[in-house]
Amino acid sequence: MEGALGDNAPDSVPFAKWRTEFSRAFQHYLDRCTPHPVGRWFGTLAVAAIYVLRVYFVQGFYIVSYGLGIYVLNLLIGFLSPIVDPELEVLEGAALPTRGSDEFKPFIRRLPEFKFWYAITKAFCVAFVMTFFSIFDVPVFWPILLFYWFVLFVLTMKRQILHMIKYKYVPFNIGKQKYGGKKTAAARSNAFSD
């Protein structure tokens, strides 16, 4: 009678154990880098620079680069968009305030910053690995791809910026907001006595 795990169970157990340990270690390092966005983005810029240098020296893989550019553009749109699109939620009420008298609702991204960073970093790593396989090096006239990507970028960003203007939201908040409320009488007297 066979065991509950099957015939090849002893061979797969060490691999499963190794995969679980690797997954835990990887998640541990991801968790440790979460509160350090500047360092994360500099690391991603380094990975992107390595990829660009690889494509430059190999003089190929333009289709891979074009696909990477389209993917990054798609991620950027998700990063700049609210989680609930006001155009789609007109019947239920807009998620973002459109008038000064509306209730304040904070901007919540469709794609959070950490997931945005992680997806871009993975995309550059996958594209880098793809540059080692000649099957992905399709011969194309790269200036046409580059021009088409710029046109696509400009049209997409124009639409996104018009959407931001129409619904009056800004997807960036740099630093902690400071409110200049009224000072108390004691604080004003201390300021004048100095």
TrEMBL record:
It is found in: Membrane. Keywords: Membrane, Transmembrane, Transmembrane helix. It is a multi-pass membrane protein. The chain crosses the membrane at residues 38-57, 63-84, 140-157. Its main location: membrane. GO terms for biological process: protein retention in ER lumen; retrograde vesicle-mediated transport, Golgi to endoplasmic reticulum. One of its GO terms (cellular component) is Golgi membrane. It holds the Pfam family Rer1. InterPro entries: Rer1. The keyword Lipid biosynthesis does not apply. It comes from the Eukaryota. Involved in the retrieval of endoplasmic reticulum membrane proteins from the early Golgi compartment. Belongs to the RER1 family. This is Protein RER1. It comes from Dioscorea zingiberensis. The lineage of its organism: Eukaryota, Viridiplantae, Streptophyta, Embryophyta, Tracheophyta.
